[in-house]
Amino acid sequence: MAGVLSPEVQDRKASEKAADVHISVRNVEKVYRSQRGSVVALENVSLDVAKGEFVSILGPSGCGKSTLLKCIAGLEPLSGGEIFVSRQRVAEPPKDLGVVFQRDILFDWRTVLDNVLVTVEFLGLKRRGYEARARSLLTTYGLAGYENRYPWELSGGQRQRVAICRAMVHDPQFLLMDEPFGALDALTRDELNLELQNRWFADRKTIIFITHGIAEAVFLSDRVIVMGRNPGRIIADVKIDLPRPRGVALRDTPAFTAYTGRMRAIMDDANAGITHAGVLS
Amino acid sequence: MSDKVRDRLSGLAWVLAIFLAIAAVWEAAVKFFGVPLFILPPIEDVVTEFFSSPALFLRNAAFTVATAVGGFAIALIVGLLLSVMIVSSRLLERIFMTLLAVMHSIPKVALAPLFVIWLGTGFEPKLAIAAMMAVLVVVVDTVAGMRSVDPEMLNLARVAHASPLSVLLKIRFPAALPQIFAAMKAAISLSVVGAIVGEYVGGQSGLGYVIIVAQGSFDTPRAFAAVLLLSIIATALFYLVVWAESLFIPWHVSQRPRATG
Questions:
Q1: Which residue of A has its CA nearest to B153?
Q2: CATH value at residue A19
């Protein structure tokens, strides 16, 4: 196993050395304390994400991946360690960030266009300057003609597309996505994965994408970080060396299935209690 | 004819049908059991009574409507302001919720005579009683609505560094609108009750006053004419709020066109 993992360790080291580190998570601990005792949600989590990199965080439910995302977004205080975004220490939500949550959480009382523009309003920017961008984003996501509809008139996939447009309307350089397609059916999910991949390839934002889908993680990412649970920690950091842009057909290639197979093995081993000590060192 | 219009017309038809059914049962019962006039007059006497002095009824009805609507408006404005304060501060929540609970436990009707001492026998005490009757339900429902906002929505606002004011205006208030309208439906009926109570205890105008005077002279048809008019007014006010609801929250589940077939 160590032989399989050592190149990944080298990859991680290499990315740490990269000058263009956008997000840096350093020895982060997160402990939830309650009357019934404390739960370690994150234990000694460290990772670096380069500018323009697409990184997935893959893990079973309860591994703390959503907690990690909330910490990076500045929505949860840390129990230990530090997080830097663009060299700024995260104490509150970083500027220049867009977040897509698992649920679309659209505002029922706003039209599609107004839902997208709410980010601009929250930021205290002038709506007029962003309306054209909002419309063109909606068009890229196949929602032209839906600008004045209300969220309840849309399908689940369309709603999540609106949420993505809302996260991107102010043109942030950094996107956090928390299982954004987890609640969608498999076909819609594939469709949105393809769109997201194309979009990312076109404008190279830094994206951290949380998922429990192995194929999704491999398909989208430059790197997949695998997390294990009890306590939540990083157990592997795998570079995905597949050509871009990627198409649906890639999923049936041996290279792709080799990656998914390896991910599956890492996750199964973690569940069986085998630690990948080499990765953590 | 659109579905909405048809829905509304059929709602109106239902109200009329129920009114007519009650009238028919009333008429039949009075005739069948030979009820004396001063206990329960037949409906035609009540209607005749109204048309014998329509100006008197309409003038007093206008006074009652003004009191009820004015009290309702005060309750709504004060209630919304209190709710905003309660939602924005733990300390204010403690203070106001306790005060409101205490106020709620006092039967407001028992306070009505005091309002006459404090504010006289004019319009003001009646307005105050009507507002007091209605304010609590507005606060309780609005606070509940503003509190039950999806926490992820608030996270979304935090990520975009939204100001507390824009969180209030763009998230909490619209999210609470369905509850606010539910409260308004209860509040409009309560403020009518408050207006009548105010008119019972002092002053010389309003349908409540008409009823009290009619009682003094055993003029049951007149009292019934006032009550009938009052119930028509209260129903109309209630449906006015329902109509406003359909204008203001067309996006809410309760207002969406029902799926057919």
A1: A105
A2: 3.40.50.300
Domain co-membership, A211 together with A240: yes
> Measured between CA atoms, how close is A199 to chain B, in angstroms?
22
In chain A, the number of structural domains is 2
Q: How far apart are CA A71 and CA A250, in angstroms?
A: 33
Give the closest-approach CA distance of B94 to chain A in angstroms: 25
Has residue A190 been placed in a domain?
Answer: yes
- Pick from A93-107, A134-148, B241-255: least confident: B241-255
Burial class (CB in 10 A: 0-12, 13-18, 19+), B145: buried
Select the residue from B152, B159, B165 to test the A interface by mutation, using most A Cβ atoms within 10 A: B159
Cβ-defined contact of B158 to A109 (cutoff 8 Å): no
Residue A6 lies in a domain: yes
Q: Are residues A72 and A187 in the same domain?
A: yes
**A93 vs chain B: nearest CA distance in angstroms?**
5
CATH of the domain at B59: 1.10.3720.10
Residues B4 and B105 in one domain: no
Q: Is residue B102 part of a domain?
A: yes
3-class secondary-structure state, position A125: coil
**Which range of residues forms the domain containing residue B7?**
1-35
Range of the domain at A229: 2-96+175-280
pLDDT band at A19 (very low <50, low <70, confident <90, very high): low
Alpha carbons B69 and B205: distance in angstroms, whole number: 16
Whether A232 contacts A41, CB under 8 Å: yes
The answer to the question of residue B194 being in a domain is yes
pTM of the complete model: 0.82
| A window 37-56, beta carbon within 8 A of B | none
- With CB atoms and an 8 Å threshold, state whether A119 touches B160: yes
pLDDT in tens, A44-70: 999 999 999 999 999 998 889 999 999
DSSP string, A43-101: EEEEEEEETT-EEEEE--TTSSHHHHHHHHTT-S--SEEEEEETTEE-SSPPSSEEEE-
From A192's Cα to the closest Cα of chain B, the distance in A is: 21
Residue type, B76: L
Cis preceding-peptide flag for A231 (omega within 30 of 0): yes
**A93 in contact with chain B, both atoms CB, cutoff 8 A:** yes
> Is the Cβ of A124 closer than 8 Å to some Cβ of chain B?
yes
Grade residue B57 by pLDDT with cuts at 50, 70 and 90.
Answer: very high
Query: By the CB < 8 Å criterion, does A152 face chain B?
Result: yes
**Domains of chain B: total:** 2
A152 and B256: CB-CB below 8 Å? yes
Residues B89, B188, single domain; the answer is: yes
Round to whole Å and give the CA distance between A163 and A156: 11
The answer to whether position A101 is within a domain reads no
Residue B130 sits in the same domain as residue B185: yes
Interface test with B, best of A66, A110, A118 (most B CBs within 10 A): A118
pLDDT reported for residue A274: 56
